[in-house]
Amino acid sequence: MPSTHDFGFPMQSLDWASWVPVLDLDKATPDEIKVLEESHPKAKENPYYLLLVQEAEVLRQRSKLFNTIMYGPRGASRAERELAATAESRLNGCPYCASVHALRYVQMKGDPALMARLMKDGVETPMEARPRAIVDFAVKLAATPSAATEADVARLREQGLEDAQILDIAMSVAMFANANRLMQTLGEAVMPKDAA
């Protein structure tokens, strides 16, 4: 179903509207409530989670995977994981995910100008060498995973990333390559009702 809202990739929080029925919280089972509470602090009011929790065990495993990839205490900084997720989401045309990760990147890295350019102009926008290497790697993985080569990994290493950091970047991209496609199949990003 095509989107009825064409507002580009704004640097602001967006809402998401499901095209299919979501769980009525009043009819939720105890396990569904538990999975929502385990998944995200605002999951019980988020239509995406209320849709996915209708397969509670699938959401439970998805949330564990998501939280480990994005919040785990491994190699890559949270900011660089968010940069990779933003680039991947921008390439795949998901304004909801792109805005979430762009805003988180700004909170952590404090570089609103870079994110504004990435959102407005796309993944080719100019940037410094280290974020450029991350964005280029993310874009290749998102579009055609086999296009990312040893040369791309070597480029990341030249920018000071260790293998554990590169793995985190790759997992962030993989997570959101799946999430973007799922979100855009099941619903669409919408402007919040209170947006000017």
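(the above was protein one; protein two follows)
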Amino acid sequence: MKQKEPDFWVLEYVTITKDPRTDLVVAIGGTEQAADILQRTGGFLSAPGPRGDYHRLPHGLPVEQQRLKATAASHALLAAGHSVHLDPALNMLVAPEGEREATLRDLAGLAERAAAATTSSEVAEVLTEVAAPVHGLLPLAREVVVRAWIAAGDFQGAAPAGEPDPIARIGSTATSMSEAARAILHARNHAARPAQRPATTSPPPSRAQPAESRRR
């Protein structure tokens, strides 16, 4: 006897993910009970969509707040018996370590590429990854240092009189990082140029001997 396939109500499943176009965290699907949990536990807002209402977090939330609210909402839904898919990038319990490992792998990969480079253009590609103005590793690290410097200045008082202020030195460190990035980019530009072959020198023309020397 052929068994009958069970009925699945797809809309009862809740998917919490981040929309790549808007960077909004959205929750799609679920029942009215799930909507209540999303709103009460995660702070999600109901919004109209082309295929019915959905839920999203408010605009302008920092990434950590997005992850915190999405994780809290997903666990509350699971505890209430709902089926949930949470984007791993939003899961505060597993994503940070995975991101750190991926970053370390990227750095190790760049070091291997630099060591295995056989042409100056390959070296230039590695240096571009390090110091590119927007997404280079060094400018991104400088951005972290600058933000930490600003935050530390809000939390820490001035250093005792006569002692150097370690927080103030972070600003000069950020400046040094910018100068280092410019120096690396200058080296990248030099390495990216095609190698110039040394100019071949033709032997000097032989001087004609005087007539008397030829007769001798």
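Reviewer note on protein two: The chain is about 50% helix and 10% strand.
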